[in-house]
Design brief:
Two copies of one chain form a homodimer.
Chain A (H helix, E strand, L loop, with lengths): L17 H14 L12 H8 L3 H13 L3 E3 L5 E3 L21 H4 L23 E2 L12 H11 L5 H5 L8 H11 L12 E4 L1 H13 L5 E6 L3 H10 L2 E6 L16 E4 L13 H14 L2 E5 L24 E6 L11 E4 L2 H15 L4 H12 L2 H26 L3 E4 L7 E5 L6 H9 L3 E2 L1 E2 L13 E5 L5 H17 L5
Parallel strand pairs in A: 3-13, 5-6, 5-7, 7-8, 8-9
Antiparallel strand pairs in A: 1-2, 4-10, 9-10, 11-12, 12-15, 14-15
Helix pairs in contact in A: 1-3, 2-3, 5-12, 7-12, 8-9, 13-15
Chain lengths: 492, 492
């Protein structure tokens, strides 16, 4: 039986080359049981005509399907679905399902009822004309071509084991070595191999540190305002959390309560205010931790984005007593979808973190680690950080000029750089309402409310990221924010 | 100042093309501060001669370094380290460190003191001549070329967002859709998008399910013997675990204690005995779970490796009451370094799993998910499963013949296929000693002891995987095992 050519439609949403899409269309028809073994496919000419593509494209797709044993060819009589093609199993009709489970009783722990983790952030930010979004990659700044080359290299036969092997609890040796020899020394940190662990992004690093050191009733100090996902991690783990208000220089060491066991801090660029902890405060914070016998988890957040002044040395580099657990990430300087970060700390801590990581996921995918190792060791990473620094420096100047020109108010911006400015709207404005209103003008801003620990958080703050907005749109975007504020009211 | 050509050495361990290695050597010298801005590099001719490579290779490496602003060229006078090249920071001498932390007191939870998670498995298994190892990829069976094509496609400009974007708590839509439409129906499972979650491998799926349903004192039944990493996950989470002895047909439903709240089971191929749960037992197990109001976590382990008989329908496909949480994985059929798996369950459960995954790691790396989506949708995955099934079927025949010929004893092998045979040595043999002895003959076997829950586990069992050993070596490898056993003693 011949399969009528009319049954073939290229899906509008499918991606890849035309050849790949044709191949996919045929394979899916077979896998779904719509095309059965022995059935004849349309001729290459007929299908090409029907789809409006060249005949060679269809021929190449058919050839690939032949090689994979989906199709067979019988000389001049054409192409047929292979007898060896996979058949969808016939298990009969599905069992009708009426959920009989009392899920509330079934859950030993719940995780979904906390803060929203910023998870209501828009995934379609790239459609906005003025995306003052924070923490996404800019296609114009990321060195996609060299990343692709490194990824292709890491797909080669030489790296077959790095790609495919179950590494159990181990890291990619090339990446770990590069971080130890080159990345950490640039933060003034010297660490042995058993003091480093690769993680699934900084989020995973913070999570691991929190489980091991700051769960089950431990008394923990965090910054206020603070990265909301960290508060959620600590809540889930059952820590007793004390928020400590930050000022223009970040976390004030004296304000950390005496009975604190673990301090979470973001010295490079405080999240979200961008304040950089001055050297004197870094030393005071270490001293305070020593006095009260607390540990410090240092999220060395955006240190590479110090384009105005050189970065301060990491807290960890000043740590004489092994009290600091260091969290690093490639999400901001490479891209967040990469999901690569690392933990640095004393060997006993890393041993626990490695065991927990092994239990929860074994190890980050080998190919991702090896690609990053190549990208770093070939110098592309540093080149990119410098390129981003220059671009962000330019954008920041334009931001500051536009903000001043339109009379908006900066609440915090840090002295070293970063990729965002922390803003405050006039008293009485709710930045969530402001953000909703600006949506209509294709302007994306981030309301500041989720960063605060309080039950009745201040509502006037908002964050303007400039890591994804083109320079030439900044002025107009800021003008629209000013116009929306002038128009008012955005009362909460 | 000129940098003497003698300072340049291509590292013997570095990988990649010659050009890449030269580029890496220069970039690393600059990043490490050994080469300073303004210093002159050797001529391309001089460096080429020194390294014994062609001049064009050096020229291409220098050109790339120029583009990345590590080097500048001054017409005919040659190449210099760029003034814009990154400089290593000078933070002065490192703080001397004497660890002052009482780590035992600092840990809120410990994770490293449990079973070894099989983490003492050899990472250098590929050097063994007779690797009867389980769960690693075989370079000869994996379709590396098409994987590379799909990965390259997923690195393209069209997929830039899928690669780079922070997806917050979301999955790759292409992969999730393919699993829902094509993978699950082949197991008789119909699931809506909010009933599926992509995970970092099956390990991560089991871990998530355990935290949500089987932690904090919950009464849990597991199979005995059983995947050791699952026992460790349950121990870490604080479950009350009852091991239930399996027989030649897997888990006997009637032996599950009345007060069990969650049952973990591996119906497709029991781990490690390879037994397949017969259809009647599947129905009985569901009935038992319904009677005692328990949930079931089904690790649908190696279902694709059913090359002897068609796979039985998944427990989940027979589940009328929403009691079954289904764990799927691509680790065995693609490769374990990929770290991709998935959870299927009722929407309230998936909501919790998604929240916990977001908190611990956000989402699996975008590129890995998208590459798998292409590989699956182009039909390569099914082609590979069939190819592997044929090869494993052949190897299994050779295994069984050799085992019979040399008088070794099979303890369990299952009727459907799989990629290993569960063996028992004569009474009194300790398979750990046997494995150690066989190391010297370049034979790798897996002692069975870690699979057992008991404090004094049986020691005579061992597992022979045949997913990575070439057919032509099987006979000789089995002969060596028989010889070692004949030689004895390997008493414990």
């Amino acid at each position: 039986m011949a399969i009528p050519v009319e049954t073939f439609h290229l899906s509008a949403t499918s991606q890849g080359t035309l050849q790949a899409r044709i191949q996919q269309m045929v394979a899916e028809g077979i896998l779904a049981g719509r095309f059965r073994p022995g059935e004849k496919l349309p001729s290459t000419r007929g299908l090409a005509h029907h789809l409006g593509v060249s005949r060679i494209t269809v021929t190449l797709a058919y050839t690939e399907l032949l090689a994979n044993d989906y199709l067979t060819s019988r000389g001049r009589s054409g192409y047929f679905v292979s007898e060896n093609a996979p058949e969808p199993p016939d298990f009969g009709p599905l069992a009708p399902r009426r959920d009989q489970v009392d899920w509330d009783a079934a859950f030993a722990q719940r995780f979904s009822n906390g803060a929203n983790l910023g998870m209501n952030k828009p995934l379609d930010w790239a459609r906005f004309r003025f995306p003052f979004i924070y923490g996404q990659a800019d296609p114009k700044l990321f060195d996609h071509a060299n990343w692709r080359l490194c990824a292709t290299q890491a797909l080669g036969a030489r790296d077959f084991m790095a790609l495919t092997q179950d590494q159990y609890d181990q890291d990619d040796a090339e990446l770990a070595t590069f971080i130890a020899r080159h990345t950490l020394p640039r933060r003034g940190i010297q660490a042995a191999p058993d003091e480093i662990l690769i993680t699934l992004g900084a989020q995973n690093a913070l999570w691991l540190a929190a489980q091991i050191l700051a769960s089950r009733g431990r008394r923990v100090a965090i910054e206020n305002p603070c990265y909301p996902a960290l508060r959620e991690i600590l809540r889930q783990g059952g820590a007793q959390v004390t928020p400590v208000d930050v000022d223009q220089e970040g976390l004030p060491p004296d304000a950390v309560p005496r009975d604190t066991q673990v301090i979470f801090t973001t010295p490079s660029h405080q999240c979200p205010t961008s304040a950089t902890l001055p050297r004197a405060r870094r030393e005071a914070l270490l001293k305070r931790a020593s006095q009260i016998n607390a540990l410090i988890v240092e999220d060395d957040y955006e240190f590479e984005m110090s384009f105005l002044k050189p970065p301060s040395p990491a807290l960890k580099s000043l740590d004489e007593e092994g009290r600091v657990i260091y969290v690093g990430s490639f999400s901001k300087s490479l891209f967040p979808g990469l999901r690569l970060g690392y933990l640095v700390g004393s060997a006993p801590f890393i041993r626990e973190a490695r065991a927990l990581r092994a239990s929860m996921l074994r190890h980050p995918p080998g190919h991702v680690q090896r690609t990053a190792a190549y990208y770093l060791s070939l110098g592309h990473y540093d080149a990119q950080v410098r390129r981003m620094g220059r671009a962000l420096g330019d954008r920041r100047k334009i931001m500051e000029r536009a903000i001043a020109a339109h009379g908006l108010e900066i609440a915090g911006k840090g002295a070293h750089g970063g990729s965002s400015i922390w803003m405050q709207a006039p008293e009485g404005v709710d930045s969530r309402a402001l953000a909703a209103q600006l949506h209509q003008d294709s302007v994306l801003i981030e309301p500041g409310t989720p960063f605060f620990a309080q039950n009745a958080p201040p509502t006037r703050f908002y964050r303007l990221g400039y890591s994804s907005i083109p320079s030439e749109r900044i002025e107009e975007g800021i003008a629209l924010i000013a116009a929306a504020l002038a128009q008012g009211p955005q009362g909460g």
